[in-house]
Design brief:
The protein has 141 residues and is an alpha/beta fold. It contains three helices and seven strands, in the order E-H-E-H-E-E-H-E-E-E. Helices cover 21% and strands 26% of the residues. A hairpin with a 6-residue loop joins strand 3 (63-66) and strand 4 (73-77).
Length: 141
Amino acid sequence: MIYDSFCSEDTFELGKRIGEEATEGSVYTLVGDLGVGKTVFTQGLAAGLGITEAVNSPTFTIVQVYDEGRLPFYHFDVYRIGDSEEMYEVGYEEYVYGDGVSLIEWANLIEDILPTHYTSVLIEKDLDRGFDYRRITIEEI
């Protein structure tokens, strides 16, 4: 499915709808250039899970855990990972194959250890359609 986002509120609302529909064990991969709205999408997904605390990219901690929603939310940012093997040191398998919802930013950097089934989210700019426009492609893998 391809969604058009014309502002950050659209991106947030799409993330929120996905969070509201997320089930235990759901894994979402999130790929897009710097500044396309990955954090906004993630904040929407967290809101859809009922999380009210501030959600930011865990760039330096790799994973941030939020327990206050209807399901635990595991937010990974693997931008600084040098090798996918490093993910096992932060408990990757326990989270991704656990009872919560996982979202992995920059998932293209750890493709070799992604689960067999996940939902891929790709956010792209298209400046021909406007500075704030984003094309969001969501695909079940």
